[in-house]
């Protein structure tokens, strides 16, 4: 009867460890997604700044053309 109890504990430990591994993997995936999202936001911000610079240059060129 002692052996049956031991096997049950081992099974529970295996299941528990498996669940812990799944949780850890999920956390790692979320961290990776957060990093990717952060990079995308930084790229979007750079693109937006570049777009603003281009708009200013375009406006300056239009003013020069009108004045010329």
Automatic annotation (TrEMBL):
Basic and acidic residues composition-biased segments: 1-29, 38-56
Region described as Disordered: spans on this chain: 1-68
Name the UniProt record assigns to this protein: Uncharacterized protein
């Amino acid at each position: 009867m002692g052996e049956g109890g031991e096997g049950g504990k081992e099974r529970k430990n295996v299941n528990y460890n498996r669940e812990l591994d799944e949780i850890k993997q999920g956390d790692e995936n979320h961290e990776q997604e957060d990093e990717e999202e952060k990079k995308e936001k930084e790229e979007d911000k750079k693109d937006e700044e570049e777009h603003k610079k281009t708009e200013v240059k375009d406006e300056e060129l239009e003013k020069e053309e009108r004045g010329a």
